[in-house]
Amino acid sequence: MKHIISAVVENQPGVLARVVGLISGRGYNIDSLNVAPTNDPTTSRITMVVPGDDRVLEQVTKQLNKLVDVIKVHDFTGEKFTDRELMLAKVMTTAKNRSAVIELASLFNARIVCVQSKSLTVQMVGTTDEVDNMLELLRSNGILELSRSGVIAVGRLD
Amino acid sequence: MRTGVECLMDGLQQAGVETVFGLPGGSVLDIFKDLYHAPFEFILVRHEQGATHMADGYARATGKVGCCLVTSGPGATNTVTGLATANMDSVPMVCISGQVPSNMIGNDAFQEADITGITRPVTKHNYLVRNVDDLPRIIAEAFYIAATGRPGPVLIDIPKDVQRASTNALTPQEIKIRGYNPNTAGHPRQIAKLAEALNRAEKPLLYVGAGVICSGAAAELTALARKARLPVTTTLLGLGSFPETDPLSLRMLGMHGSVTANYATQECDLLVSVGARFDDRVTGKLSEFAPHATIAHIDIDPSAISKSVAVDIPVVGDVRHVLTALLPLVEERPREAWLSKLGQWQEKYPFTYDQDPGKLMPQYVIDKIYELTRGDAIIATEVGQHQMWAAHFYKYTQPRTFISSGGLGTMGFGLPAAIGAQVGRRDKMVVDIAGDGSAQMNFQELVVAVEHQLPVKVVILNNSYLGMVRQWQEMFYKGEYSATVLGQADRPQNERVPGAAPHYLPDFVKMAEAHGALGLRAVKREEVVPSLEKAFAWNGPAVLECMVEREVNVYPMVPAGASLLEMIHSMA
Ligand SMILES: Cc1ncc(C[n+]2csc(CCOP(=O)(O)OP(=O)(O)O)c2C)c(N)n1
Description:
A: alpha+beta, Alpha-Beta Plaits, 5-stranded antiparallel beta sheet, 4-stranded antiparallel beta sheet, 9 strands, B: alpha/beta, Rossmann fold, binds thiamine diphosphate
C-alpha cells in the first residue's frame, strides 16, 4: 500500500537529511519526494510517497513526529485529499507523429511548452495515475527525457 | 558582547553543569582556553569513548544531564558508540564537539568529520552551529531536549570561527520549540480505563522499565504495587525501580529472566508496561507473548506504543504523572490465588548455581558483593554473562543503582560509567562488575579514577572467554568456540599463536598496578571474600580479578525468537 506522507518541517539545513535518513535507515524506499517552503517561509512541506504496510507506516509517522525539527506529520491514507504531480516529457517527433502527440496532449489537458524541430516537450499536471496513463500512450513515440515532480497533496476536509 | 566560547561557558553554567568529561584538540583550543578558568570541574579522559560513557554513567546515577567535550574529526567520531549507547537507553547527555572553521567545512580539511551527519541516527537531536548568534539558544535547547520527554543525547558541533566570533545574543528566558512538545500529563480517560482494568484483573502484572527511573517514579510505583497488591517484574534497565527484596517482586523477565517472571507474563490477564518498550530480549516470540493478557502501556514516547506489541490501553504521558493520577483510582485487592501461585513458582525456581565449595563460581562472587555491600552499592556492569549474573544475584532496591548498557549492549561501558557514577555520587560505593573480555575495552580510563581519587572497584569475573558468545556457541553452534577463547591453550587451529602461552594474559593485577590502582586476584573460592573485603576497604580504586569456573552458562535462557515458556534450565 502506498502512503502519502506530508510533513511540515523547519526550513533549515539538515532537516531533509534527517527525515529521509529516518525512512531509509529502516530499509524503506521513498517512491517520490517533494520539498518546498510553505506560505510561512520558515517552514517547508515535505511530501513523500512511501510504499509499506499500514502498521509500519504508522510507526514511521510516529518516529517522524518525534524529530525535533518536524512540526507536523500527516499520513493521507484512507482520507479525502487532492494530490497532483507535474510531469515534463520531451517526446521525439517527426512530421509523421507530431500532430498525434499534440492531439494526445490536448486530450489529457496537457500543454506543449517547448517546440523544437525534433521534439516537443509536454507538460502535464494530474494524479499519478493520469500521468502514468499519459506516459504509457506517449512512450511509443520515444521519450528523450522525463522529469516528474513527485506527488504533492492537500487535505479536502476543512 | 560575548564570544562563542563565553556563550558556551555561560550556557553550561546556566544549565547547571558541574562536571565536564573530555579531551582537547586543535579545534577546541579556544574552548579549553576559557575552561582553564571555568568554575566547573573538568575530567580529562584518555579516550573520548570514555568521556561519553562517564557522562552517561554520571547521568544515570544522578538524573542530571551528563556533559562531554571533544575535538573535531577523530575526537568526535570516538563519541559515536557512547552516543548510540545513551540514545538506546534514553540517557540525557550533551556532547559538544569542535569543528573545523565554517569556510573549510566540506573541503576534507584536517580533522574534519561530518559529525552531525554521522550521529544523526544515534542522537535525539544534533546541531551544527552556523552563526554565533544562535549559540546561546542552541545550548539552552540542547539541555532542554536532552532532559525532557524521552531523554537522550544531543550533540552540538561548533566550528572554530563560531567559537571565536562575538555576539550580543542572550540565553533565552524560555525555551519554545514548535516541533517539540512532550506530553507529560496523560489522558484522564485513558488513566481511568487503566484503573478499571486493574480493578477488574484477577491476574495482573506490572512490567516495569527504565521509564520509571528516569521520571523519578519509583516511590509512586511502589505505592501502587503495594496498595493494589500487583506483582512487579522489571527489565534489565528497570532494576532498582522496585525493591527486589519485596515479595511482590518477581525479578527480571525476558531472555535471562526469572522463571516466575516469564511464567507470570505468559499467564497474566492484564500486563501493564510502565515505561518499558517491549524489547525483543523481553518479549521473545512476539506472537506468543502474554497470550492471555489485555496489554496496557504507559510511556512518554508515543512512538513506543504498539511498536511491536499491539496495545489495548495506551497512556501517553510521564510515568510519574500517570502513576500519581492512577493511585487513588486503584482499589485494594488481596489477589490471594494469583500471588500464592506466583509465590510457589518463586520458591520452586529461584536463580541458582553450583554450590560445590571446590569451585569458584562466578555467581558466588556477585552473591558476596551483595552481602558485603549490603545491597547498598551502585553496580555498573560491562556486557556479557557477568552482566546477567549481576542482575540475578544482586538485589536492587533503589533507583539509579544499576548502571548497564541494555539497548546497545556496549562492552567497555562499565568502567567509565562507574567512574562517571562515582563523580556524581561520591557518597556511594561504586562497583563495576566486568568480564575479562569487556575489561580490556576502555581499561585506560582507570587512570582517571586514580587521579581523581574516585574509589571505584572493578571486579573481573575472568573466565578467559568472551563468555556470553561462547555460551551461544555451546548451545546453538555445535560447541565450536570460534574466536571466543581468550586463553591461549585451547584455541581452534586458525587462531593458534606461536610460542609458549603465558599463564595470564593480560595480567590484570599488573594492569591495575600500572595504572596506579590496587590489584588483587582470587583463584580459589575461599579467597573471594577476603579479597573483596580488601578491595572495598581500600580507599582508592581497586581491581579484583576472580579466576572463575570457565564454562558456566547463564540460566534460565529463552533462545532468541522462542516463546517465554521455552526456557532452557541447563545443558542436560
Ligand atoms: C563492543 C562490543 N563488541 C562485541 C560485543 C558482542 N559480545 C556480547 S557479550 C560478549 C562477550 C563478553 O565477554 P566478557 O566481557 O569476557 O564477559 P563474559 O560474557 O565472559 O562474562 C561479546 C563479544 C559487544 N556486546 N560489544
